[in-house]
Hints:
The protein is an alpha/beta fold. It has a domain at 4-186 and 349-372: Vaccinia Virus protein VP39 (Rossmann fold). Helix content is 30%, strand content 13%. The chain has helices at 14-21, 34-43, 59-66, 101-112, 132-143, 196-200, 224-230, 246-251, 271-274, 319-325, 338-347, 351-372, and strands at 4-8, 25-31, 48-51, 75-78, 116-122, 147-154, 165-172, 215-216, 235-236. Strand 2 (25-31), helix 2 and strand 3 form a beta-alpha-beta unit. Helix 1 packs across helix 12.
Amino acid sequence: MAHTAIDLFCGAGGLSAGLEMAGFTVLAGNDLFEAAGKTFEATHPHAKFISGPIEELTIDHLLDVTGLKPGELTVLAGGPPCQAYSVYNHQRGMHDSRATLFREYLRIVDGLRPEWIVMENVTGIYSIGGGEAVAAIKEELAAIGYDVKEAVLRAEDFGVPQERRRVVFIGNRIGTPISHPEPTHGPGRAFPFTTIKDAIGDLPPLGNGEDRGRVAYKGGEATPYQRLLRGNATTVANHAAPRLGKVNMDRLPHIPPGGSWRDIPFDLLPAGMKRAKRSDHTKRYGRMTWDGLSCTVLTKCDIHWGAYIHPDQDRAISVREAARLQAFPDWFEFTGSRTDQYVQVGNAVPPLLGKAIGDHLKALIETRSQKAA
């Protein structure tokens, strides 16, 4: 019997892509971000994209478009918008309307009665009201019959070339013991971390602001990671450099690999950073290193925000490079404006992390089936 999934707050479909890599059939996705929906539709042709706010999503409509009955869905996945929980939002709290969107997710859980649920969010969720949000999620799921456990998963531990921490809730209503996937990458594990060079070293060089449309890969032998994400492709889309202004272009040549704003001559620093302590803003104007991991890919790969300068080219990373650092396959083409494309990439669950979660869920499901037999 096929393992099925529905993805709420699906965005461009990173978690869906990972679940599909693990063998799940994704039947539908819901989001109100129109550009992400177009990407989802193009990259998940067998799934139905339902546009609009989750508050307007009815159980009857979901059952109608998927052909399911309550209780038949294997897993309901979703990551309610994280702005209210993020450490980057210093006004976060349970009073923020976005922090209550998980209750809409719970409404869908109660109506669909999936066997399993997967819910993902930023680690900042732990600090709301001293853990109020986490406690509320678990209590409300328990009230409708779901046992839930959460754990912080590090994307780099599962082959993603990026330092990224996410809280992943896994639950079920069928009494199966719950656990989370075990790390596979890093020192002392089966595989080394995937480096930035492993991830983007085959993409052709770009000038500041250059957009050549679809481009061919660089020559030379591809790394296993590059081969995985290329598939059968010979060219790739979304590899265009954002245009930086002259003042930023004057700053970049002073920043070595692994360097940051501290390497910029004082007279070239932005006014606000001239007053900064040397211990502040450690990632701002950061240049990546080929043998390192990327910092967390955000919704803007803005050099003012973090280490988004290419390791050896004086420019910010392209949408495709950000997507590679998020473990998106190259056949994923992001639609909408370039700003929309960066948002879709930055908001996503890295597909390889989604695959690790999906593989682990399948193992738990199969163990239960074997015991039942």
